[in-house]
Amino acid sequence: MARRGVPAAVPPEVGGNSAADPAAAHAPRHDDAAQRLPQAFAGKAITTAVAPDEDRPAAWSPRVFALIEWRRFEAVCEALFAQAGLQTRSQSHGADGGVDIWLHSRNASGPVAVVQCKHWQGKPVPVSAVREFFGTMAALGLKRGTYATSSTFTRDALAFAQANGINAQDGAGLLQLIASRTPEQQAELLAIAFEGDYWRPTCASCGLKMVPRSNSTTGEPFWSCSQFPRCRGNQAMTAAAKARLEARG
Ligand SMILES: [Zn+2]
């Protein structure tokens, strides 16, 4: 995912995040964040627990991508490559240099390809993002790369990907790929999608789970790092997460 710095109280687009905090980079990944809300914050804490969806799908559909957080989306993409026999390595947070997953084969020492994942909903991936990824591939000396998104690509982005050997996989393409796998593999991928607090985003800066808060001026809910103010990671809330918050009162 593209890492961008944003002010703490202004949620970026879904999947965006704030500057990395190197000190927090090796903090434990799993965290019961809702129990440890920091006292001081520009926004108001929302104390209502965000509970998992009770009627989560039992089979793959676009709704799965809508319900899960970006880190689960990356994990599904990684598992798709692992099922295809590749050795994978991922970096779930911090500065990633424009790479989310490295792909290795047994016959080569370095990575053979890299993957960029964009868990976006509604907004198509623009050509600028695919161009940036191509630049990353070139800097790494790699000719192969996959750009995966839960959303779609603009026509320019697709044309650029095709012209430069980038495998562009949109949400529909990923679902087709998943549908071509054995029932056991599809079930394995679904279990990975819904692993743990699948609905609660991971802080892209420090790798801990985020907590819901509301903007003190607009009342708009957003996700804030559970480690605020030590970590200022934040991101906008998906429609699905907002609906769940509202349903819970
Ligand atoms: Zn954080």
CATH-level-2 architecture of the largest domain: 3-Layer(aba) Sandwich
Widest sheet, order of strands: 2-3-4-5-6
* Number of discrete domains: 2
Q: Radius of gyration in whole Å, from Cα?
A: 18 Å
Small-molecule components bound: zinc ion
Low-confidence parts: 1-42
Write down how many β-strands occur, each being a DSSP E stretch of 2 or more residues.
Answer: 9
Percent in strands: 15-25%
Q: Characterize the main sheet.
A: 5 strands, mixed
Q: Which secondary-structure class do the elements indicate? A: alpha+beta
Description:
There is one protein chain. 29% of the residues lie in helices and 15% in strands. The chain has 249 residues and is of the alpha+beta class. Helix 2 (70-83) packs antiparallel against helix 6. It has helices spanning 62-67, 70-83, 127-139, 155-163, 171-179, 183-193, 239-247, and strands spanning 44-45, 87-90, 101-104, 113-118, 145-149, 166-169, 210-214, 221-225, 234-236. It has a 5-stranded mixed beta sheet, with helices on both faces. It has a 4-stranded antiparallel beta sheet with strand order 1-7-8-9, with no helix packed on it. Zinc ion is lined by residues 203, 205-206, 208, 225, 227, 231, 233. GO terms for molecular function: DNA binding; restriction endodeoxyribonuclease activity. Residues 68-178 form the Restriction endonuclease type IV Mrr domain. It holds the Pfam family Mrr_cat. Residues 1-32 are annotated as: Disordered.
